[in-house]
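Example 399, ligand pyridoxal-5'-phosphate.
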Amino acid sequence: MDHNLLLADRTRQINASAIREILKAASRPGTISLAGGVPAPESFPIEIIRKLSNKILDTYGAGALQYDLTEGFPPLCNALSGYLANKGIAAEPDDILITSGSQGALDCIGKILISAGDKVAVEAPTYLGAIQAFNPYEPEYIHLDSDDNGLIPSSLEKAISSHRVKFVYIVPNFQNPTGRTISLERRREIASIITRHDVLLVEDDPYGDLRYQGIPIPAIKTMAAHHVIYITSLSKVFAPGLRIGFCLAPQNIRKWLVIAKQGVDLHTSTFNQALAAEYISGGFLKETLPEIIRIYQPRCKKMIDTLDHYFPDGFHWSRPDGGMFIWVEGPTGFDMQNVYRESLENRVAFVPGKYFYTTRGKGMETMRLNFTMATEEEIDSSIQTISEIIKNRMQIRAA
Ligand SMILES: Cc1ncc(COP(=O)(O)O)c(C=O)c1O
């Protein structure tokens, strides 16, 4: 039997993630990986989880192992209501929908909102996982421009004025892949634009808590609650393997998200939700976040310093105040794919930036660097390696 003949038309639209292949290559022993977007394993609170696992079984007994509500385990919804209040986001426990990672929310959003040919406006570059979640529903992407201060509001206004945009998708803090953060002034402008044009915005914020310097900037959700679906996750500040994400959507959208989620997985793991509930309500998230920041902050600084030191003229990089990524842009016409191949031969991995664009041929001269997984020594030596490869290629180009 030719199983490929069985595939639905829309399944053929889905590209196997090139990044998965890159991550596979990056995990070869002896390779320094600046490719992933995963938390440092030493940030995981294993001992706390061990103790809380016992406590959960004592407190909830079989309830922690039973089927539960699609909307979310009530003690976790209660805990998250307080967590969101600390960010200035007003949410009753019943407003929250727990999803299997924020990825689960993105999938449900695609499922309930996108008909084939609908226009979805995204930053260029943008988070590849969102594109993968939306693609099966066959949207058309409208590209929004950004600079060091994040999404440029006039680009959003232009896109919305000239297209019937179904929704806008953005990552406001320490964006994946660029590390850029949308400034307060721009958030206010964006809130005003979406309200004026009556357009829905998906604000995907898994990195907001990983701030190493500067002051937190309020979510756009706080400025235009009725027009924003706010999504966030415990993956980057607790443990991604637990798959706990959550979203806050206007009620008329939330009810459809619940129905869509029911069809996907009935509900997110009850045990893991109970763990997350105890972790937050017991004050552990608050207590361990500074420790995670203490691991990442020097790595972020080290990467910026080494780029400043080694990289040649004509290349520019973001200088994030948090998150996990730095974005490098080379001169127009420079091909980062060749640098990637040669770096891999030298046992250093990163992700060529072209994978974060929905238009073929865009971003050839860019790369995404992750700084959370490598030590400071590894960051120094790997950036030096990449820089030497780039300098050689620049010389070849000039010759
Ligand atoms: C912007 C963004 N959104 C969502 C996700 C998905 O995270 P999770 O499903 O683990 O919450 C990621 C993961 O890297 C991400 O970078």
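Summary: DSSP finds 13 helices and 15 strands in the chain.
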